[in-house]
């Protein structure tokens, strides 16, 4: 909206840099800068940037890579926790040693910069699977992605129709763990008296 937009020498303070407002993060734009003569005509040889993609990043990483990825393990499952740093995502993708192992984790709203995500169901890695070995260290990664396609010139195969950020990765060593359930049963002679001083021992 509002383009093409004219700028004169006073708009840019005598410099060569201008700011284009109201652009959508992660979209591709065709940018054309063409000089204008004093009589209102257009100067020859305009500058053209055919595939200018606006940044998706909330911070210094323009791709919107997640940050602060942490892994935890509890009762045979490995969980992810990370901070959203993207304006453009529909969800997040997960990898272990460069291979996808889990369904994507979709979010309701993008542009949720600095939101911490810690899902407990969709992104768990099951230690009982054949892909994991206790004591082994794996490289886990999370990246933001978008399902949107980009409508561009169909004969231009150089334009990617999808968005995926750079990954944030961290190593994690699978731990050995066990859950023990102990039942103490009293004889009928004890009645309803509390069990005091009961010590339970076991060997692994």
Explain what you see.
With 204 residues, the protein is mainly β. 0% of the residues lie in helices and 29% in strands. The protein contains no helices and twelve strands. The protein has strands at residues 28-33, 47-53, 67-74, 77-83, 91-96, 99-100, 105-106, 116-117, 125-126, 137-146, 163-164, 168-173. Strands 5, 6, 7, 10, 11 and 12 form a six-stranded antiparallel sheet that branches. Strands 3, 4, 8 and 9 form a four-stranded antiparallel sheet that branches. A hairpin with a 2-residue loop joins strand 3 (67-74) and strand 4 (77-83). The chain starts with 27 loop residues before the first strand and ends in a 31-residue tail after the last strand. The mean pLDDT is 76.
Portion in beta strands = 25-35%
Approximate helicity band = under 10%
> Biggest sheet: strands, sense, closure?
6 strands, antiparallel
Structural class: mainly beta
Which blocks of ≥5 consecutive residues have pLDDT under 50? none
Individual helix count: 0
Give helix and strand order, one letter per element, not per position. Answer: EEEEEEEEEEEE
Structural shape: elongated
Round the Cα radius of gyration to an integer and report it: 28 Å
Instruction: Report the end-to-end length measured between terminal Cα atoms.
Output: 70 Å
**Mean residue pLDDT:** 76
Number of DSSP strands? 12
């Amino acid at each position: 909206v509002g383009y093409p937009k004219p700028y004169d020498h006073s708009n840019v303070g005598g410099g060569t840099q201008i700011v284009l407002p109201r652009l959508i993060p992660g979209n591709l734009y065709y940018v054309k800068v063409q000089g204008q003569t004093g009589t209102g005509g257009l100067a020859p040889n305009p500058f053209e940037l055919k595939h200018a993609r606006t940044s998706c990043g909330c911070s210094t990483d323009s791709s919107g890579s997640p940050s602060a990825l942490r892994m935890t393990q509890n009762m045979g499952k490995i969980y992810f926790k990370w901070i959203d740093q993207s304006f453009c995502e529909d969800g997040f993708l997960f990898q272990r040693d460069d291979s996808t192992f889990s369904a994507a984790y979709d979010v309701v709203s993008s542009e949720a910069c600095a939101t911490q995500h810690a899902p407990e169901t969709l992104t768990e890695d099951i230690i009982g699977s054949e892909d994991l070995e206790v004591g082994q260290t794996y490289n886990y990664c999370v990246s933001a992605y978008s399902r949107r396609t980009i409508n561009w010139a169909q004969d231009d195969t150089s334009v990617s129709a999808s968005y995926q950020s750079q990954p944030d990765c961290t190593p994690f060593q699978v731990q050995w763990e066990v859950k023990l359930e102990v039942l103490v049963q009293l004889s009928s002679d004890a009645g309803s008296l509390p069990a005091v001083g009961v010590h339970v021992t076991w060997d692994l």
